Structures are given as C-alpha cells and as structure tokens.
Amino acid sequence: MQGKIADFGIPDIFQLVSSQAKSGSLAISGKDRVTIFIFADGKIVDVQPDRREPGSLLGTMLRDGGLLTDSELKRFLDAQGGAGKKIGELLVEKGKISPEVLARYLTLQIKECLFDVLTLTEGEYRFEGFAVRPSSWGGEPLRPDVLLMEGMQFLDEYARYREKFPPGAFRVSRRQGEKVDPHALTEVERLVWKALEFSDDPDRVFRKACLTGFEGIKGLAALRERGLVELSTMEGERDDPALRLRKELARQGRFDSILAGLWAGAAAAAAVWLYGSLLSPDAAETFTEWVRFF
Amino acid sequence: MRAPAVLSLLFLMASAPSTGLAEEAFPGYPESVRTQALRVVAAAAPDRTEALAVEVRSLRKLMFDYGILSMNAVPDLVFERAAKEGWKQKASVPLREMAKVAPLSVPLWAWLVREDASRFEPDRFLDDLSGLGGALRMYGPAPLGYAAWVLLFASAAACWFSAWASIALLLRARPALTADLSRIFRSLPRPEVPAAILVLALFVVPVLAGVGIGVCAVFWIALSAGYLRRGELVIATTAILLLAGVFLCGGFFHSVDQLAGDTRKGGWLGGEGYFPQRWPDVSTDSGNPFSGPRWEGMLRFTRARAEMQGGNPGAAERAWSGLIRDGIEVAGAYNNRGVTRARLGNADDALSDFEAAVERTPAGGPAHWNAYQLYLEGFRLEEARRIQATAWASIRDLSFLGYQGEEMTHGELVSSPMPVGDVWKNLFTMRAGWLREAGKSPFHSLFFRPLPGGWVPAFLAVGWFWTAAWKLLSRKIWLHSTCRSCGTRTMVVGTRESSDICNSCRAQIGGGVRGGEERVRRVQNITLHRRYVHACSVLFPGAGALWAGKDLQAMIYGIFLCLPLGALSVSMRAGSASLALISDMQTLVAAGALACVALLWAIGAWWGWRSFDLLQLRHNVAGEGS
Question: What pTM was estimated for this model as a whole?
Fold first, then answer.
C-alpha cells in the first residue's frame, strides 16, 4: 500500500493500519526525511527516525537526558556496529540503563516521531506487510488511536503554548528563593520542575523529564503562570546544548593548554633565574671564596 | 723625528718586565730554601722517586735550619705541573713525598685521603687521615676554610630549599588563588582569564626583574599561605627561617673573609704554610672587627715566625722577647726564641728558654724535644733522662709533620706554630658584628636584592607575620579550596584539612552520580587537574606529594634534594677555577652532587606522580578522563 499524503492523510493511514491489525512497516517521507514506524498487530512497537534528524535518535535523546556522556554514546555506537544490535538493546544488556527507562524513552521517541510526521502536508507513504515480533527489551506496544488523539491536541495547541515564550532559543531556570509544594503541581509540572535542576535548556529539560516537546512546553507554561520559573533569551546562539557544551569544554581545554604553555615558559625563566643566582659564574665568585683560605 | 720616538717607546715597553714573569714561586724564604724548593718541584715525576726523595731530604734539612714547618706551595706547584704535563692520575707517589715538606697542607692530605679511599688502601688511609687531622689542628686557615665551605654549602642548600618550597607551595595554592582573584574580575565576561594571567604575573615578574631568591621566596609564600595546610605552613616557616640563617651566614662569612685575605698569595694567617707578605694593621683600625689584644698577639706571633723563616734570627729574637715581655703566647714564644738562639750559637740561653717553655707545658710539646736535644749535646744525661719519655711522646704526637725521633739525630729543633685555637676563639667573639656585617655581604646582593641591607631582617619578620596573619584570616573569611584529588574548587571557611577533599571524592562517586553535562564537566576537571599535578611533579619534584597530602615527607625530601644542589653550587665552579689540589677534589664533589641531584630528581618526580595517582585511586577518580 502506498500513495501521497495529500490524497490520504496521515491520521487516516494510521487508523487504517490499526483497525486492520496489520503487521509491517509504514514509511512516511516528507521534508527530505523518511520515518519508518513498525507495527505488530496494528500497534506501534518501534520507530526508525531519519538519521539526518539526530535529535530524534534514541542515543541522542538519552545523552540529552543526561543518561549518557558523549564519549559513552560514541563507545556504544561503535560497539553497536560490531554487535549488530540496536543501541537500546545494547544499553540494557550492558546495564547502562534499565529496561523501564528504555521503554519510557522508546515511547517518547515514537510520540516525537508521530507528532513530527503529523505536521507533514506533502509527501508519500508506503506500507509493507510482514510478520513482526515485538522485541523483549522494548516497551508495551502503543495504540495508534491514543497517540493520534494526543497528536491532534499537539497540532491544535502547541502554537498557543509556544507563543507564551520568546521566539527562537531561550533559557529557563527556577526563580531563586521560590518554595514549591510538590503536591500543588501536576505530574507533568513536577517532572519539569525537577528536571530544571539538570539544565537551563528547555529541550534538555524535557528530555530529562522524558516528556515530548508539547508536554514539556505545557508544563513549563503552567510553571511560568505560577511564577516559579524565569526566562532568558539567547540572542545569536544556535540552540544546541550538546554543541554548546562541547564548545565550552574545548575552549576551556584550549585556555588550559595556553596557560600550561605560559607556565612552562615561566618555569624556564625561573630555571634561568635559579641558575643565575646559584650556579652561574657570577654566583660562583661568592661560592668559591672559601678556596682562598687554603 | 716622530718614527724614532715611537720605536724607542715600543722598545721600552717591550723591555719592561711583566707581572707574570716577576711572580716569585716562594717569595720571602731565604735564597737557599727557594732554590731547593724549586729543585724539588722540578724533580717531581711519577717515575723518579729516588731523585725526588734526595731533593726532599735536602729541603727538609734547610727547613729545620730556618724553623720552617711547612711549605704548602710546593705540592700546589707539583700538582699544577702534573695537571699541565698530563700525569695527574699518577701524581700520588710524588705528592705523598711532598707531605714531608708540606705537612700543614690541608688540601694535600685531603687529596691523599681521597686517593687512599679510591684505591682501597686502609693503612695509608688512616695515616693520611691522621695527617689531615694534624694539619687541621695546626694550620690556621684550615678551620676557616672548612667553616667557610660548610657555611656556604649550608647557605646554598638553604636557598635552594627556599626556592623549591616557595615555588611548590605557590603551585599548590595556584588554582584556589586564581579562583579567588577571579572574584575581583567578576564583572568581566570570563573572569578566570585575567585572574590566571595575574597569578602568572605574580610569579614571573619578580623572576624577570631579577629579584633575589630570598625576596621572591617570601613573597610567594606570603601569597600562598591562606590556602595551605598546617604541614605545608611548616615548610613555609622553615624556608623563611633558613633565609634568615642565610642572611646571618652572609654576615659571618663577610667577617671571616676579612680575616684571612688571600692566604695562598701572602695572607698573614697562612704564615705556617705560605710566607706572609702583607700585614693588616689590626691595632690602629678601630673599624676593623679584628682589632683587639688577641688579634694583635696573633699578628705579632706571625711576624716573629716570618722573621725566623725568612732567615733573620736577630730580628726574630727581638720579636720573641717582645712577646714574652708582653705575656703573649709565652710558651710558644719561649720555644721559638730558644730555637732562634740555638741557631745563633747561644746554646745556654736557648736551653733556658726551652726549660721555661717546658715549665709552662708540662704535658708535652716541641720544647720538651728541643730541651732534650740540648741536654744530650751538653752531656747532661741526668736531665735528658728525666724528660726523655715526654720528649719522645711529644715528637710522636708530631708524626704527621714527618718527624721521626730515630731519624732526628743531628740536633734538629722543632718550632712552635701559630696557635690555631685562637683563630676559633676570635671567630666566635664576633657574633655581635654578624648582623651588622650581613648587610654588606655578597649574600645580601645575591639573594636579597633589591632590598637595602638593613631592611632584610624586618622584611623576613614581616613576611613571616603576614604568612601567619593570612593563614589566621583564612579561617574567618570565605576562600576557595581546591580538592586535592579531583581539582574541584569550592568556597570554604575554617580549616583546610577538613575540606581539601571534596564531598564527591569522599563519597567515591568517580565522575559523578548524575550523567550529562554535570558529569562531562567533572570528568574534564579531573583530567585537567591530573595533568597539572603530573606536570608539577616532573618540573618541581616532590610537589606532587604535597597534593597527595604528604607534607612533612615532602619537606624531608626537599631537604635531601637541596643538600646535593648546595654542594653543586659551592663546588661546580671551584673545580674549574684553577689546577690546584682543592679544585681537583671539588670536581669530584661536583660530579657526585650532580649525580645525586639527577637521581633524587627522578625519584621525587616518580614519587610525587605515584602518590597523586594513588590518592586519585583511593577516591575513585583515577580512571576518569584517561
């Protein structure tokens, strides 16, 4: 089954596959990206985002959520190539994350990808049927109709919540000195509030809280209405927290190297100075005075 | 007309004797002694032992005639010849022969002792060691020379220690100091940059300005004190105290330097080994620290000895009589006047003088031998038998002078040398002047420039008080503290010991419990800190051990490292200063010191590196970032 999105809308495609309890892969392409959803008996069990969109890849999500470092991610990706396993499976095997955490992030990944493709108005779809056995390390299969309801809400409300925040990149942090009663907050608000400890970058906060961008922005807007958070804008900076961190660490490393070089020069100057004071011919005139006594 | 005038002038200039040619090898001694001494020097060769022994015997006879105990210039010249002609390695045989004519040459005995040790000849070693001891007891400049060497060595080692300690402590305090200085620049976008540059400038500007070690060391210690542990403060205090000692040593050395002058080139104190040619006017110069009756007595004694050795018995007799009249070194003066009178043929008066000397030295001495000799010559066997045992014991005590009673059968008489004990006594009565003299000493300009001499004690005291005050203040105000293990900087108040390992390291959580940015930053911090401490360990050995908390062990290591460095400072140039015996031995000392420094440096670098790595291992941050 294949066709154009303009002729047969994305929600209709998902509902069709779900209602007929099909198993196989649904590839949706648009905006130069291809996202593949895996179905088992009409339920979504996995997703393969386009590699050109690294923010949707599971490893990147886990790194942004603070569960992996850059070097760990690189190491596991290298190991993945050799083992022929998916990175989530590998992480659980190595005990880096628990199966529960993986399941939460896989669900998040599916949701993010679905919300993303729902925004497509042009493009193509292609469904190929084949038997799919859900993996033992993955989470519970997701019902497309439930996700679509959330997706529709996202399409309707995201812009409204987003416009409450500055356009472009911004930073968010807890307002200093604010006392919070956790019971007064909703579940999503509590998760966002807690994740604000981790970073001031909203995307990383949402990743840490394991929330979609839509859920996160709603929670953040609620916290802002309560006066618990404050915002700052990031003029001229590309909003990639990992890149920013890497740049900052690289800059610190460079500064440290320059400083080490300067101190090495200072050590050389000190060596010359010590030589002049204690070993040079001038100093020797003082130190060899005793020879005259013999 | 002009050309002949220029030619005449050139001829006159060419015919004028140069100072080098005019230099006399044995100035002041009688002609016969000078000639024979030159024959001895010429006869010295590794394979001409018999000929040399003959010449040496002749010279010894002449030395007895003129009351000369030692001619230290003879072995000096022989060794210079050996060095120039390339048989220095075979010089031990002729130089051993020289011990008979220069028994008071301390460098000669020391050189022979070294030869015995290197060739493993224990019998000769003990004999030569005895000779060295005797020369030290009887040759005035020897105690001074060794005292000066020890003081210079101790001062150089102390300066090395101060430099090592102050730099190691500054490097230990540097991260926290930088963090605190960055608080001054907090209005700037990257305050750590100007703070780091400022700390670097505080280190390097005094160095580039050529400020003395003492001033720099106190300045760096004063900067670091607030960030140091108690053990490290002990190191800092030790360094400041040692610098005060160096300053005082400068005063002592300056005073001592005025005493001997150039001994080998006719300084008056070297009269028993080199003929004195210049005489200080100690009695009239009130500014001279060596004025006073004791110095005057020593000077007059040396003048009288010079008259004896110069072949002027009449003048010598008058000089000894003057000393006896004034009650100065009466026993030695009586003995020497007796020797002089015996040479003048006045045996009865000579014997009276010897008897007077014997009465004043009943335990023994040269006068006993001399009286014994005259009793025998006068067939006064009863008196001779009475003092025979003491006479022989006295000559045995002087065996290092080459005197063997069995060989002294021609009425050889033994003179009394200038009493060396007085040199020590005079040295230690000058304590009050040391501080005053310290400001004028070479040590002051070398180690405490640009401070005026009078300010140095006050500067050291202020430096120490500032160090103590800064440390006490750090217990009351918030300052940064650097975790010794991971390099994390935190603000603390109170004692450093409880906070110099951060909570994360105490909890042994490695790179951190939470991942992400926080972990990445911590790992980067650990990596940079490890590189810094490793670099410190290699460049300033032992500094890594300070980071590992081994303060007192590091101080002991620093002392051990600085001892050979001090020996290197004192000996390195002395070895190449001349071809003399003493320089030859200093070459060995310098080589040994250099080897010790290299070895200790490598050990210290390894120890510091290893100690720090173990600290990181203990706190579970050893593998992070590597």
Answer: 0.69
